[in-house]
Amino acid sequence: xxxFYWYNGTxxxxxxxxxxxxxxxxxxxxxxYSVIVRDAAKGCTSLPVSGTIVRTxxxxxxxxxxxxxx
Length: 70
Hints:
This protein is an all-beta fold. The chain has strands at about 1-5, 20, 30-40, 50-55.
């Protein structure tokens, strides 16, 4: 089995929830991330693989209309 260690570059250790056998991690903010894979049986580790999460969409416009004073 393999273990995955996810980092965001700003913390000294793996990000919260970023250790385990899950190679697919969700809910991350924009930014630079890297992952190191460890073979649990042999104890060897990979070189870090890096990637960047970039936001490609825009927030919807929100309009608030004042109906009356309270």
